[in-house]
Amino acid sequence: MSKLFSTILIIALISGVFAGCGGKVEENYQMVTLREAGHAGITSPGYKFGIDSPEFIAVKGNIGMVREGNLIEFFTGEDLENKVKMVEGKKFVAGVIKSFTPRVHFSVDFFAMGSDTIRIGEAGYAEFPTLLRGFDEGNFEEIDIALVDHSTRMLKNIYDTQFKIEDAKLSWEEIQDAKGETIWAYMLTFPKVRFIVDMDELDPGMELLLVALINENLLLTGGISYGGMPSASEFPRSYRNNTKIGGVVKLEYVKYAGDICPIIQ
Predict the structure, then answer these.
(1) Is 10 helix (H, G, I), strand (E, B) or coil?
(2) Pairing of strands 63-68, 259-262
(3) How many helices (DSSP H) and strands (DSSP E) are in the chain?
(4) Where are the alpha helices (DSSP H) in the chain?
(5) What is residue 141's DSSP assignment?
(6) In Å, what is the CA distance from 245 to each residue of 69, 76, 211, 225, 238?
(7) Which of 102, 119, 136 lies at the terminal end of a domain, its last residue?
């Protein structure tokens, strides 16, 4: 399908949708690839583009990440997480507007599937990950995490310590706490010990990156802090022996796609 024909098709589609709302409104969304929309300098009135079945690798709330090869762009839209679920596994066109603040991203106007259109619109609020090219890792120690286990003796060695981690397995899973209650948690798994990621210290931008890592089955490299020994009531020895869980850690920064995302204090 030529881009000219695709553009005309999008105009007709939007006109048909809005005609039923009391008037005909033509919207010109130039059909392009994600790479063309982001980097090719293609001219489109109002920076409006139609993108065929964008691959969402992570969505949380009003913000998502879309991959095309080695290119990743951010998409925003009101209740985007639930709207993406409505088109999972289907062919669709995303009508987007390229925006430049607070960083380059694409605001989603609609998803179109045949004669069906899901209206989305501008997000009221979306928190982007903070991505840096440089970051001072001097305060983070290098330890052999493969030697650390869930024993009290070993955990005392990393008490009140910030240290680097490399190629850690990250998961979002249902676990039971020491009281037998079921909770959902991000887990970091190492050869001899597992840690629960402190959700209270996790900002939305960094959590979006965690979702992307999990969905693409990628390992996590970054830095964590182990603030203190787990209490006997929350993590008794019997519980640690059965689960290999050594307590809670704070995720200080994550390396992703050549950038570093630090936690926002």
Answers:
(1) helix
(2) unpaired
(3) 6, 14
(4) 3-19, 34-39, 80-85, 152-157, 204-215, 237-243
(5) B
(6) 36, 36, 21, 15, 11
(7) 119
Asked, for residue 195, whether it belongs to a domain, the answer is: yes
242 and 158 belong to one structural domain:
yes
- How far apart CA 251 and CA 264 sit, in angstroms, is 11
User: Quick one: which H or E segment has residue 96?
Assistant: strand 93-99
Rounded CA separation 52/32 (Å): 8
Q: What is the DSSP string of 183-237?
A: EEEEEEE-SS-EEEE-GGG--HHHHHHHHHHHHTTPPEEEEEEE-SPPPTTTS-H
Neighbouring C-alpha atoms within 13 Å toward the C-beta of 17: 19
Tell whether 111 and 158 lie within a shared domain: no
Both tokens of 105, joined, read 């991203």
C-alpha 55/C-alpha 67 separation (Å) is 6
Its sign, for the CA torsion 101, 102, 106, 111, is: negative
Model confidence pTM above 0.70: yes
Q: Which of 18-22, 179-183, 228-232 has the lowest mean pLDDT?
A: 18-22
Residues 40-79: tens digit of each pLDDT:
677 777 899 999 999 999 999 999 999 999 999 999 999 9
